[in-house]
Amino acid sequence: MSTNTAVPDPTIEMVVESVPRTEFTPREHLGTAGAIADLGEDPIIDRWRSQAPSWRGKHWTYRPDTDGALRLFPINVARATRTTT
Description:
By secondary structure, the chain is α+β, with helices and mostly antiparallel strands. It has helices spanning 21-30, 44-51; strands at 17-19, 33-35, 59-64, 70-77. A hairpin with a 5-residue loop joins β3 (59-64) and β4. The chain is globular and about 45 Å long. The N and C termini lie far apart (66 Å).
């Protein structure tokens, strides 16, 4: 009997989701996303930095993996745009 553990390959570069702040804020309120400081000194942060060069290193989110389990992933929150009048 074989089990699918869905452990990510550390040699493969990750694709990082980018969301607008208006989408991130409700996730943060529900506890399914947050600032990287919320995770403390978690070793996954170092892995994300090596696997996801496009990640800005500031935020994380939960999202379903291929097996349907919620897992931590890095996320980029769109920077605020400036408007001039």
